[in-house]
């Protein structure tokens, strides 16, 4: 469903990804493991069109979407939760989650259905819904970013370092949320990046290892 084929990326003339190839089939749970600076975030950003590949192809549902503008990716049913969350602090939690649905101009009934699905998977977000995002803890913000990604991620969800900076108790809650997601939405693919492979071992079926911008193992 998602595929990078021989993708290279340079930023400000510096090579960041070198001939990266990976595949995320429909419904698969895939991990991308690597040290900080190995190229994990750039890989996700390339899939989302936020970074342009200098060579290679980005394939979505078998179509070459390498040059597709980033705002078109959600129309393919792809949700993205960046490491830094990128929430609007003056918006409520619910407004942050509703924003991508509004950008896609989803019908009100469909928007409400998706929001209820998010609340069923992440019940703590229902209690947080009226709070301003600026008042959230880091762990709560990660949950909101996941909920927002699920509002549009009907086919795939990309999660960038979701456990980074979380206290052990919050990391456990996040992992439990991913297990619920896996059980409730078996057709939704997940690509998740992490530095520590042990955190993801119970959650994924396939692992890629990236080192210095190259896939070192599969």
Automatic annotation (TrEMBL):
GO terms for biological process: L-amino acid transport. GO terms for molecular function: ATP binding; ATP hydrolysis activity; branched-chain amino acid transmembrane transporter activity. SMART domains: AAA. Residues 2-218 form the ABC transporter domain. InterPro entries: AAA+_ATPase, ABC_transporter-like_ATP-bd, BCAA_Transport_ATP-bd_LivF, P-loop_NTPase. The keyword ATP-binding applies. Pfam families: ABC_tran. The keyword Nucleotide-binding applies. Keywords: Amino-acid transport, ATP-binding, Nucleotide-binding, Transport. Belongs to the ABC transporter superfamily. This is ATP-binding cassette domain-containing protein. It comes from Neoroseomonas eburnea. The lineage of its organism: Bacteria, Pseudomonadati, Pseudomonadota, Alphaproteobacteria, Acetobacterales.
